[in-house]
Amino acid sequence: MPAEQGQGPAAVVQSSETAADGTLSAREVVKHFRGVHALDGVSLTLQPGEIVGLIGPNGSGKTTLLNVLSGIYPPTSGRVWCRGRDVTTRKPHVIAHLGVGRTFQNIRLFSHLTVRQNVEVGSVSGRKVEGVDHQADVDRLLDRFSLSGSAEAQALSLPYGAQRRVEIARALAGRPLFLLLDEPAAGMNEAESDQLLETIMGVRKDFGCGVLIVDHDLRLIMRLCERIHVLAEGVTLATGTPQEVRADRQVIDVFLGDALKDDV
Amino acid sequence: MAVFARLISSRFMRSVLRTAVPLVVVLVAVMVVGAVMAPDGRGATYRLLVNFLITVVIVVALQMFTGNSGIVSWGHAAFVGIGAYSTAWFSVPMVIKEDIFPGLPAWMMGAEWGLVPCLLVSTAIGALAAAVVGLAICRMKETAMAMSTLGLLVIAHGIYSNWEGWTRGTEGVYALPTNTTIYIACGFACLAVLLAVMFKYSRVGLRLQASREDPLSAESTGVSVVRARYFAWVASAAMSALAGSLWAQFNLAFGPAQFYYAQVFAILSMLVIGGLATVSGALVGAGITTVIFEVLRGVENEGNLFGIEVPQISGLAQMILALITLLILIFRPNGLLAWWELDGWIVKARDRFWKGGRKLAPDAGEKGGE
Ligand SMILES: Nc1ncnc2c1ncn2[C@@H]1O[C@H](COP(=O)(O)OP(=O)(O)OP(=O)(O)O)[C@@H](O)[C@H]1O
Ligand SMILES: [Mg+2]
């Protein structure tokens, strides 16, 4: 956890440029770890209701960008804006309250709590909305992700695929406007990844949130996303529709190579 | 009020009652044994049982913080001490107070309060002290936090030992009135258990447990980990001070040595043996440890274990307790009860007894369980 920043609400200032927009965005974000330039000036904007893919080779900075967007790391330079507020140095829970939910590349559940409690923590700690019935919401989410049968089991006792679903359910329970998914299809076979595609489509339709999804499964990304953002070595290589990205010479050379021809 | 109504929703109440009722039954049974065996409120057994019930309050208070946050506190004995000294300030007869507490201001000198006001003022002072030090401690990282509670213990001991005008230093305090009976001790033990169970299943308790499991993903889920820890810290310190007050009004004389390493070790052992994560574990651990101590004290004093002659060794009880704690940490690191409250174990035992009967129904039968 980053250290307490000690800033009052005064630090959440409104910018005339962004006050009206309801997006989550990274502006020229740089993140260095000692010598490693994990991110070197990346800008990305996520609108509610759109599905954006974030792809790139291993170590290109995808997870780091998600961590900066969700407040886990303060960036070395650059800003992060959420719904018109500068949240660059705010703690993760403040950003979660503003409507940013996420999952982790290596699943991070509350292992010894029950599946229901995992989702419940999300519901009672997420974005504040008047008149929420937490229990009904939790029940509905458990049902939606076929977890009702294991609601009272400890999260760590579930098989891998079910744990991934718990993580998404927990993030959705916080009523996010933006959902950041870090390799949700990792370790899934084709059928499971198709299922996941349906799930994410359904989430966008029913919850209306913007989804930023990181994955190496290009088949999934190309079918799911309206827009794709390609990272390589901490810089943006290309952005655009799946068609544009697929046609981009640089992308093909540097990263996609044969994978595209085979998979798509 | 609306928040309160939502909190006391049906699932919450059901969970609380299911967990708290068996524990309350055990505590009341202890009380009945004491009341029957020693109707005059005297004797070694009576003292043992009352002290056990007070110990339950102390261990349950520590469970509220350490069990739910996963951060070991070495400093809670300091709050028990605050409760005990505060009680002495407001309850020792004036004539004696002028002699042993020359530093007290005049208005406190005259105070010769009874049980309830003493409990209230002790709890309030304990909560206040915790609220102040918690502002610093609860912002630290997990390991730093545990270390600083140890510092708190040492500082508190230094104050109790040297603030002559208010504590009589190492010579200790005496002449407190006997106000704690077995009924009162049992009442507060039941209250402590009920509050701890309610806390565990409350929103703050749930958030705190989430932070114990994974502070980073708890934060990302919207949990203010610092705030959850702070709340639990103050609540649990207040309950510790309450226990200190009850204890002081039963044991009547004490000194700074009563709130130091040996006590901290005993309390933590109880929690580790029973299991940190559950309120039931706190109670079971307190029970087992009390029995072990009692048996071994007999050995220490008389060189006799169930009629068998053994050599007398001083400090034997401490050593054996340390050994048992180590064995538990090695072979059952989550404690005897691990993650399930007594009611969970009762259900498990019942299911095993009726082999397969209820085991498959109703949850596992549903689809989607994988
Ligand atoms: N906490 C950290 N400390 C030091 N270096 C880090 C840290 N996190 C990431 N890095 C480095 O930053 C670079 C980008 O890592 P990141 O995890 O963001 O890549 P990624 O695109 O998510 O890769 P993958 O596809 O393997 O998940 C890597 O070189 C990595 O070693
Ligand atoms: Mg990654």
Give a summary of the structure in a few sentences:
The complex is a heterodimer of chains A (264) and B (370). Chain A is of the alpha/beta class and 264 residues long.
Number of helices of chain A: 10
Strand content of chain B: under 5%
Helix content of chain B: over 70%
- Global morphology of chain B: globular
Can you list the strand order of the major beta sheet of chain A?
A: 6-7-8-3-9-10
Rg of chain B over CA atoms, rounded to whole Å, is 22 Å
Attached small molecules: adenosine-5'-triphosphate, magnesium ion
Q: How would you sum up the major sheet of chain A?
A: 6 strands, mixed
List the helices and strands and how they pair.
The complex is a heterodimer of chains A (about 260) and B (about 375).
Chain A: E1 24-33, E2 36-46, E3 51-55, H1 62-69, E4 77-82, E5 85-86, H2 92-97, E6 100-102, H3 115-125, H4 134-144, H5 160-173, E7 178-182, H6 190-207, E8 210-214, H7 218-224, E9 227-232, E10 235-240, H8 242-247, H9 249-256, H10 258-263
Parallel strand pairs in A: 3-8, 3-9, 6-7, 7-8
Antiparallel strand pairs in A: 1-2, 1-4, 4-5, 9-10
Helix pairs in contact in A: 3-4, 3-5, 4-5
Chain B: H1 2-7, H2 10-37, H3 44-69, H4 76-91, H5 94-100, H6 106-109, H7 115-137, H8 142-162, H9 164-167, H10 182-201, H11 203-213, H12 215-220, H13 225-251, H14 261-274, H15 279-302, E1 304-305, E2 308-309, H16 316-331, H17 342-353
Antiparallel strand pairs in B: 1-2
Helix pairs in contact in B: 2-3, 2-10, 3-10, 3-11, 3-13, 3-14, 3-15, 4-7, 4-8, 4-13, 7-13, 10-11, 11-13, 14-15, 14-16, 15-16
